[in-house]
Amino acid sequence: MASNTEKIVEKITEDTEVSPAELSAALRLTGRRVRQLTEDGVLRKAGNGKYTLIENIHRYFSWVNAKPIDEEDVKLEKARRQSEVQIKASRAMVAKLEADELKGKMHRSEDVAAMTADLILTVRSLMMALPGRLAVDTQAAKTAAEAEELIRAEVFAALEEISRYRYDPVRYEERVRNRMNWDFSEALDDG
To answer: Alpha-carbon distance 105 to 172, whole Å?
Structure first.
């Protein structure tokens, strides 16, 4: 009676195709390393996303034997891996910042500058309106104290209006969408 290993070996032919996980196990590599070697052209997928087992074993061992490993290669490989890690970390950080921005937890400096400019324009328009609103009233005042009280009341009214100026998350979100050319209503209609 044949053992399981003998049965499996009897079934392997030149055309035997295996999944990436099976090729990983046969070569004693991680799935990630198999993908990397495929991207580098060392391993080759068949048309259906599987690997021809015998061909890829030969390709892998030819590559291993043809590749002299020296200190410089080790350094280059280490530097390449470190660069990949840094790139991935940077991408993750950018994705987190974008997510925070969409949640309204973080604001870009240009958006803060635009919102601040809006506040300054509001203050400016209120201050510029004071002389026109006070000119007739102060001229009609009988005493300097009465004119002072009129001016004080208008300044307090302007300050009260400024104090009601609030951060509006909806307006901020609209600014972000406009800046990024996003249209959430289209996304909602499509979903």
So the answer is: 11
d(CA 29, CA 60): 11
Straight-line distance from the first to the last Cα atom of the chain, in angstroms, rounded to the nearest whole number: 59
Hey, CA dihedral for 141, 145, 146, 148, is it positive or negative?
Answer: positive
**Token pair 């996980």 in the structure block, residue:** 21
Q: What is the 3-state secondary structure (H, E, C) of the chain?
A: CCCHHHHHHHHCCCCCEECHHHHHHHHCCCHHHHHHHHHCCCCCECCCCCEEHHHHHHHHHHHHHHCCCCHHHHHHHHHHHHHHHHHHHHHHHHHHHHHHHHHCCCCCHHHHHHHHHHHHHHHHHHHHHHHHHHHHHHHHCCCHHHHHHHHHHHHHHHHHHHHCCCCCHHHHHHHHHHHHCCCHHHHHHHC
Tens-binned pLDDT, residue by residue, of the chain (191 aa): 455 555 555 678 888 899 999 999 999 999 999 999 999 999 999 878 899 999 999 999 888 887 666 778 778 888 989 999 999 999 999 888 888 777 777 777 887 888 888 888 988 998 898 898 888 888 888 999 999 999 999 999 888 988 888 777 777 777 777 777 755 444 444 44
Angle at 79 between CA 76 and CA 81, to 5 degrees: 110
